[in-house]
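Need residues for this backbone.
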């Protein structure tokens, strides 16, 4: 997994970098086929904004969260991303569950 953390109008301190890395390991615990993760942290007046663009095989997942505190925005971002990754994993695993494989379809016909 390639992790890129950038800041707009914000210096990325080692504490923030470690916090983001810790939260992103939670995502890889659920879904290990993550190719690339790009995190953008920004400050606009009194709003702290965190965005992530996650690239998995066959899909890009984009999530953003805003809060008054940067750490709270990162927490909200991780929660949203976690839900979307689990949803994507469930969808990608349900391809042949309903109808069965080719052998089962042929067995039902004859």
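Answer:
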């Amino acid at each position: 997994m390639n992790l890129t953390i950038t800041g707009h109008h914000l210096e990325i301190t080692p504490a923030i970098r470690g916090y983001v890395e810790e939260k992103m390991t939670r995502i890889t615990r659920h879904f290990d086929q993550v190719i690339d993760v790009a995190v953008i942290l920004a400050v606009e007046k009194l709003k702290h904004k965190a965005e992530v663009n996650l690239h998995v095989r066959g899909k890009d997942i984009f999530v953003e969260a805003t809060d008054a505190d940067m750490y709270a925005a990162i927490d909200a971002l991780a929660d949203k991303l976690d839900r979307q990754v689990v949803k994507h994993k469930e969808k990608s695993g349900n391809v042949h569950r309903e109808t069965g494989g080719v052998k089962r379809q042929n067995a039902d016909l004859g």
